[in-house]
Specification:
The protein is mainly β. The protein has 2 domains: about 300 residues, Immunoglobulin-like, CATH 2.60.40; about 210 residues, no CATH class. Helix content is about 10%, strand content about 35%. The protein has a 5-stranded mixed sheet. The protein has a 5-stranded mixed sheet with strand order 11-36-35-13-33, with no helix packed on it.
């Protein structure tokens, strides 16, 4: 299925227009467009009410709108928090694996109290209409800023929530969130009431809960009337089928699905009108990462698309024009398309003076809990190491094993067998890599030279570089084909400090600062045992447990253990997700901490 979709995509990737869009040039392109199913996004997030100093946790599910199962089309999704003025508070890039991804956001004191929307979408979804995206309400209470008019009910003169007076003429009693969750027998607890700092055993009954992908949030119920969090059962109502039209015809512009990875769009501009912009080779490489080096060609208008289909850990992608005419071009990279959020209707969250003590207590608890974060950190999971695009079949010289010379040129001559240096009229000194054939003086092919993962066209910068700053030199013999360009071998150089790229500034290339996909985390789980180092540390968690990745198989019951905190009250378990056959699941249970 994946190969079939890719073959359809290739029908219309060659006609790049402006603003991240491509043209459906032929009727075959239109047919191919309709053969790729549309997608929908559901986000399970932990709460619709956040205080400054708290975390928003979320799990994103990308759904095939036809089959209702998890989508294998897009590899990148986007999640943003939008304020009532349509401004973006944050925008996260989420790497999707088998249709799912995760992220989080710490609410800083710079964000004012107010009403916000959490939105999610893929680039492929932008072809429907400007309201075709997931959206859910989130309200923020920031008691550290002076202006609280947006959320204070009928008391616009109040400046600080922390200093709210109890002398309200019309106080309103605490109002518990009325989003009662139906008690589900798919969830089994070992008790209904627990003491503070005691273990809770949660079991998922595999006889009643089908195989699938789920996420679990366990959080204290709020004493505030707040927005309803969309559930997996109700999310489809966000995507009004009658209004979601993706009608396209010959000549229409479309956004391509990011089926293999993130797409970067750009174009080149010629400094001389007599120099063509079509069929110009563009090279892309990632600073410090040799797993994703690509060469693409521009179209008739100078446009190009680079597909970052491998995971990258560094922020800089270097994109440059290749060839003798490189200095005659300027590269322009296009921004992501902007979405019109003006049609969204926001939940109107309000508080009053009766909630002063609750706000004050929760804010103090957050400050105390955050002060001990270094003792309870989350763990960023190490991404899978991606193999280099040239594989592992290459010869390598670790220079610490040899006598150090002043320059790379001397090192090549004295140590590295199979690599040489020759002089040309056009380019001066260049590298050569000895293959299984004789090197010819009139050979027009040069080796591909990579330093810290970056393509280097000016070999002289490497030849004369201080070899004491080089960690190792490796190479691949024989010709190497990358895109439509042929190289006479590959030379791989890694510096000690990974800082060589700073010397590569030039008018024919640009370093593009990428916002990386959010790192997958393993969230801290509080544990209390005898003589535990946490026993004397205050514990004011409202969020007792967050597990974004639950893969259930019909083999045995799946059990999780977590510990209650020092905060008494009613807690709610929310489990959201989708079965392997595409059915949505929204179940929950409540318990009490005394």
């Amino acid at each position: 299925m994946k190969i079939k979709l890719l073959s359809i995509l290739l029908l219309f990737t060659v006609s790049l227009s402006a603003q991240h869009q491509s043209v459906l040039k032929t009727n075959e392109d239109v047919v191919g467009y309709y053969k790729i199913p549309q997608e929908e996004v559901f986000i399970h997030y932990n709460t619709s009410l956040l205080f400054a100093g708290e975390y928003l946790y979320y799990r994103l599910y990308c759904i095939n709108a036809n089959s209702r199962s998890l989508s294998n089309i897009s590899k990148i999704a986007y999640v943003s928090l939008i304020n009532e003025k349509g401004k973006t508070v944050f925008k996260h890039k989420i790497a999707l694996e088998n249709g799912v991804g995760q992220g989080d956001f710490f609410v800083p004191v710079a964000i004012p109290s107010g009403n916000y929307k959490l939105v999610g979408y893929t680039q492929w979804m932008l072809n429907v209409e400007d309201t075709y995206f997931f959206h859910g309400d989130i309200s923020v209470v920031n008691p550290y800023q002076s202006n609280q008019k947006v959320i204070v009910s009928g008391e616009s003169h109040i400046d600080s929530l922390i200093q709210i007076s109890n002398n309200s003429k019309n106080p309103v009693a605490f109002v518990y969130d009325k989003q009662e969750t139906k008690e589900s027998d798919e969830i089994i607890l070992d008790a209904t009431t627990y003491k503070k700092r005691s273990p809770v055993r949660l079991t998922l009954n595999n006889m009643k809960l089908e195989e699938g992908n789920y996420s679990i949030s366990i959080r204290k119920k709020d004493k505030f009337k707040k927005a309803t969090v969309p559930t997996a059962k109700t999310y489809s109502t966000i995507f009004n089928k009658k209004g979601n039209k993706r009608i396209k015809s010959k000549g229409s512009l479309i956004y391509l699905p990011e089926m293999r990875g993130e797409l970067i769009y750009g174009k080149i501009i010629s400094k001389d009108s007599s120099i063509p912009v079509s069929e110009v080779k563009i090279g892309s490489s990632i600073d410090g990462n040799t797993s994703d080096v690509q060469i693409v060609s521009t179209n008739a208008k100078g446009g190009f698309i680079i597909n970052l289909h491998k995971r990258y850990h560094d922020k800089k992608v270097r994109i440059e024009v290749l060839g003798e005419q490189k200095e005659n071009y300027t590269i322009l990279l296009e921004d992501m398309p902007k979405i019109n959020f003006s049609k969204m209707k926001f939940y109107s969250f309000e508080i009053n003076t009766a909630l002063k003590d609750e706000i004050l207590e929760r804010s103090i608890f957050n400050q105390i809990d955050n002060s001990f974060y270094n003792l309870k950190p989350d763990t960023i999971q190490t991404p899978k190491t991606m193999s280099s695009f040239y594989g592992n079949d290459y010869e390598n010289y670790d220079l610490d094993d040899y006598t150090r010379f002043a320059t790379v040129k001397e090192t090549i001559i004295e140590i590295v067998e199979g690599v040489g240096i020759r002089k040309t009229k056009e380019k001066g000194e260049v590298f050569t890599v000895q293959g299984n054939y004789s090197i010819k003086n009139n050979n027009n092919f040069l080796p591909l030279v990579l330093v810290d993962g970056i393509i280097v066209q000016d070999h002289g910068k490497v030849i004369n570089f201080d070899a004491r700053k080089i960690k190792n030199i490796g190479f691949i013999r024989n010709k190497y084909y990358l895109g439509t360009k042929i190289f006479d071998g590959v030379l791989i150089v890694n510096s000690v400090s990974k800082g060589f790229v700073t010397n590569l500034k030039g008018p024919y290339g640009t370093s593009y600062e990428l916002s990386r996909p959010r790192s997958t985390k393993k969230y801290f789980k509080q544990v209390y045992k005898d003589e535990n180092k946490y026993n004397r540390i205050p514990d004011y968690r409202n969020q007792l447990f967050w597990e974004p990745k639950v893969v259930l198989k019909n083999e045995v019951d799946q059990t999780y253990e977590f510990f209650t905190s020092d905060v008494a009250g009613d807690y709610e378990i929310s489990i959201q997700g989708f079965t392997n056959i595409g059915s949505s699941v929204s179940i929950g249970k409540t318990f009490r901490v005394e």
